[in-house]
Amino acid sequence: MQLLARLGDVARLEEEAVALLALAERSGTRQTVAAAHMARADVAFLRGRLVAAREHGLQALAVAEGAGLSTMAARINRHLAMTAVNVGDHRRAREHVLADLAQARQTGSPTLELNARFFMMAIDLVTDAWEEVLRAADEMLALGYRVGFARGVATGLAGRAFVLAHRGRPEEAARCVAEAREVYGRAAAADRHIFTMVEIAEATAALAAGDPGRARALAAAAVATPTVLPCLGLTVLGEAQVAVGDAAGALGTARRLGGFGPGAPWPGACGSWIEGLARAALGERSAALACLRRAADRLDGLDMAFQAARCRVGWAEVAAAADDDRAAAGRADAAEAANRSLAAFDRLGARPSADRARRLLRVLGERPAAPPRAATGELSERELQVVRLVAAGLSNAEIAGRLFISPRTVTTHLQHVYGRLGLPSRTALTRWVLESGLAAEDT
Questions:
Q1: Could you write out the three-class secondary structure of 240-274?
Q2: Which of 67, 194, 218, 295 has its CA 20 to 30 A from that of 159?
Q3: Taking the CB of residue 68, how many other CB atoms lie within 10 A of it?
Q4: Which among 10, 62, 67, 68 has a CA at the least distance from the CA of 39?
């Protein structure tokens, strides 16, 4: 059953679910009953019926916990977390992931723990906790490489790629994706529902690099089979479709997002966003403004500040383009919306989006706030470990062995550090470590 769910074979999964339900009615064993409810939850999720998926998942969880089936309960909690994050209920998603993580740690299985950590990272990603995403990615890479769990490594790299792309470092994001593909290898075919996260990250990096055609192809491949974050994949696809001039395709994607139903506010908001972008491309100004305003308000209500800010700056661009009697009022509202978005982008370090907001403000005759200066000490814990070992004279290969990561990952960390600190070489980095008092006493 789990393999069918991973492959996204909905038809066969539904057949097996019916058979399992019949078996559960005959046998009455709690494990079979829980598995039957879980199969129905899988089918509902893969068909986009998220409310039904949650209901079946809760039934499965009640049976599994009542029977003391801890491993099954961990998987069910993970499924419920996946359902909740796609709906937009991040509080419930975290509750289920924390339960999954606790149960995984009780079993002592690092692979189960890595699965739980991936879903926590996914929640942090969509709720804009980007520093937490980078920290979690570092931990997943270290543990994944140490125990030889390709999925843990690849998903950690995908999470990092998303953040790097949105922060204006598409080349680094692309390197993360390339490493993820190399690590996953042929196992990706049998793990489609997870591997699609790598494809969506790659599509995001392609959009950031100014290659919407490639982004569209990648995102289309990702959502052609079920993925753990269908809302994210469809939203990236819709953005790419608009960017290549396929407004009709984007409207179709918006309808798919809306098809998750009224019980799924995040897909509904993203559907309005993509429809707004498509309507703007078609010159349907009033419809575009209404869709983008509705999307921004809904995303604000879900505490998804980055997506809300992107909707709002898109609304501002359309409003600012008015050339009739409404132009003056529209431009004033556009400036207010652009400034509000700019503050969110600067807080997250989303430089390309911040640059877009600043350009709009200058067109509107405003003087935008200056970009914040990056603090030289704002390195992640893993980056600090790497630079300390560089200062101690270790090669990239030696650092990789010490930290249980790949040499390519060490290179990616160093490129990030060089860019963040404005340093040209290992020698300059070593000097910076020593002058900052960051050298490790015992390496």
A1: HHHHCCCHHHHHHHHHHHHCCCCCCHHHHHHHHHH
A2: 295
A3: 9
A4: 10
CB 434 within 8 A of CB 391: yes
The per-residue pLDDT for range 131-172, each reduced to its tens digit, is 899 989 989 998 999 999 999 999 999 999 999 999 998 998
Predicted TM-score of the model (pTM):
0.83
CA atoms within 13 A of residue 127's CA, in its CB half-sphere: 21
pLDDT at 191 over 50: yes
- Distance between CA atoms of 295 and 267, rounded to whole angstroms? 10
Angle at 42 between CA 127 and CA 78, to 5 degrees: 45
Residue with tokens 């800010």: 309
CA-closest candidate to residue 285, choices 244, 326, 249: 326
Closest by Cα among 323, 237, 222, 229 to 273: 237
Task: Taking residues 258-280, report their average pLDDT.
Answer: 95
Task: Count the Cβ atoms, other than its own, within 10 Å of residue 402.
Answer: 15
